[in-house]
Amino acid sequence: MPIQKNDHDPRTPYQLPFPKDALSEIVVPDAVPDDDRIWVPQAENVWFRPLCLNRSQGYWMNLLKVRKAGVLSRHRHPQEVHGWVLKGRWHYLEHDWEATPGSYVYEPPGETHTLVVPDGVEEMITYFQVNGVMCYVDPYGEVLGYEDVFTKIDLCRKHYEEVGLGADYVDQFIR
Ligand code: FE
Hints:
By secondary structure, the protein is mainly β.
């Protein structure tokens, strides 16, 4: 790439407006929130905290929190998942490895798994990017239900309304 003759200072910021159709950025200073109301319950002892609910591309970025004996029910991923463990430990009943703080996990399309937190771990928090859909299944793959970015948004609206933050609290995370 040729060096532009008027590019003398690497600290000169970009001088032009962003594309007019570009979406605005999301900045969440308290990604692990102090306010417990921000955690949206999704099952017994399981919560999620939305960060980016990407309805235009059909994925969601969230923190998943599981306490004590919580289980994230058996589900299949038709698309990939990326995870990064922030706190606690967990494993899948279908694999022999354990995810610990600092672990990065890639789950390929076709995975079916059940997330459990072992005895003695008070709480785990993991940052997950989930693409497309999660299909809840029985032990033989029969689909029992699903979640996608739209069911996530609906859960957030309902919960935030109930806890007094207002249904539109979720709007800041939607792109
Ligand atoms: Fe999963």
